[in-house]
Design goal:
Radius of gyration: 16 Å
Strand content: 15-25%
Order of helices and strands: EHHEEEHH
Number of domains: 2
Distance between the termini: 33 Å
Shape: globular
Number of strands: 4
Strand order of the largest sheet: 1-2
């Protein structure tokens, strides 16, 4: 299994739960980003408009060639699972654009570590 996350920089600064909670969450992000099968990229606020502005989404891919994958866009009123090949392709393209706009995993890890230090 592999996890690849593109995280908006604003999430690093939006204080939810107080300083202690934010500190613990950021420390956990750093620990997860250091795992070999996890990649975390931070999309800087200065990147401007980007494909993720329409909302968060998760792409689930499976090892079976007969199962092309599922997209789960997050929204307020319930669950939605997109399974049409064109829907999956559209979200894969959007994710590739987000990956290209975001800092690389190494620079993102440094930014996360700086955010943890800023709360210490």
């Amino acid at each position: 299994m592999r996890l690849w996350v593109v995280l908006d920089e604003a999430a690093l600064h939006r204080n939810v739960g107080g300083a202690a909670v934010m500190h613990a969450q950021l420390q956990h992000l750093v620990a997860m980003a250091e795992l070999p099968r996890v990649a975390v990229q931070v999309l800087r606020t200065s990147s401007g408009a980007h494909p993720g502005m329409l909302g968060s989404f998760t792409i689930l891919k499976f090892p079976e060639s007969t199962d092309p994958g599922v997209v789960y866009p997050e929204h307020r009123t319930g669950s939605l699972y997109l399974e049409e090949p064109w829907e999956l392709k559209e979200h894969e393209i959007a994710f590739q654009h987000l990956q290209g706009l975001a800092l690389g995993p190494s620079d993102s890890l440094s930014l996360l570590a700086d955010a943890v230090e800023g709360l210490s």
